[in-house]
Amino acid sequence: MDLLTELAILVLAAFVGFEVISKVPNTLHTPLMSGTNAIHGIVVLGGLLLIGPAEGFLNEFLLVIAIAFGTINVVGGFLVTDRMLGMFKDKKKKPELEE
Amino acid sequence: MSRNDVIQLLYIVAFSMFITGLRMLRGPRTAVRGNQVAAVGMAIAVGATLAQPGVGDWLLIVIGVAIGVAVGVPAARSVKMTAMPQMVALFNGVGGGAVALISVVEFRGAGGDLPAQELIPILFAAIIGSISFWGSNIAFLKLQELMKGGLKTPKAVTAVLAAIPVALAIVIAAGSESELLFWLILLSAGALGIFAVVPIGGADMPVVISTLNAFTGLSAAAAGVALDNTALIVAGMLVGASGTILTKQMAEAMNRSIGNVFFAGVGTGGGGA
């Protein structure tokens, strides 16, 4: 893909990212942070793509760590977000915070 | 339709689900489902990537994923509710670390000889990823109260620390193929991450973690440009942008400005939280 197409995608994604978070109730700040945190665990794809062609022990070693790190980020991130939000459900009787 | 077309389509499905998931995470009623939608999107993105031609060394992939699951799942399951912010910091940190490692391997794999349109995003990813990794670990240590504040980093030191990795990156971008310089970039950016976060008080830490979260997103997007991978570009940039807005809102909710949090130093912390 050529660089300009990629830059176009990058810029559009930035605008979507800015718009997608409008006014968020304060109580949802931490879960939302945790949810976006899990999404950037997508870096694991980088490790998966590079490890096949990688040569040499050090490169492979670094990529195994990268894949492990990325997996921790994804799996841990989504699980922790789910647990945080589960806490919300228990307190559902409280008045809704949505505007 | 070629296999590659199918993979690209699956990436589009995946990032549509990320955007939908984020939208749903805004409201208390839809948040749980939103997180699940994003998780399914991630599974699709990973599955599509594994189907890519040339992806291999399955043993190493399995080892990496197994380690990740073995560490990540119990950590997420057992963490106390009160310790959630530092857990998020750790998860964010390893994400930044992954980006930094990927950037090293890209650089090493090409022997340092890369076209500018790959090299510049790789250098960016290396610097931001390393800042995020080390900064997040410090945030974890401080929230876990394994490290006490007190050390005050003068602004001049921070400025110098910020200048070093940028200067080294410019040397590499100008044509140096030195691997040593690349490692020094990671080290100096890491030092910047450490010294920038150390002086910040615990009350302000959520804002710091949110900032570093946005950083990791940006670095992932940069890695995506280097790797020609749309899923990485879109997901990384989504987090980079939404994380920035979220950081601003969190700071406002605590009656703090982001500049205040990062540059006010010790003793002024705790505006509201």
Automatic annotation (TrEMBL), chain A:
NAD(P) transhydrogenase alpha subunit C-terminal domain sequence ranges: 7-89
GO molecular function annotations of the record: NADP binding; proton-translocating NAD(P)+ transhydrogenase activity
Reactions that this protein is recorded to catalyse: NAD(+) + NADPH + H(+)(in) = NADH + NADP(+) + H(+)(out)
Membrane spanning residue stretches: 38-54, 61-80
Localization per Swiss-Prot or TrEMBL: Cell inner membrane
EC number of this enzyme: 7.1.1.1
One Gene Ontology biological process: NADPH regeneration
Domain of life: Bacteria
Pfam families, alphabetized: PNTB_4TM
First-level EC class: translocase
Membrane topology label: Multi-pass membrane protein
One cellular component term from this protein's GO annotations in UniProt: plasma membrane
Chain's role: The transhydrogenation between NADH and NADP is coupled to respiration and ATP hydrolysis and functions as a proton pump across the membrane.
Protein name, UniProt field: proton-translocating NAD(P)(+) transhydrogenase
Classification lineage: Bacteria, Bacillati, Actinomycetota, Thermoleophilia, Solirubrobacterales
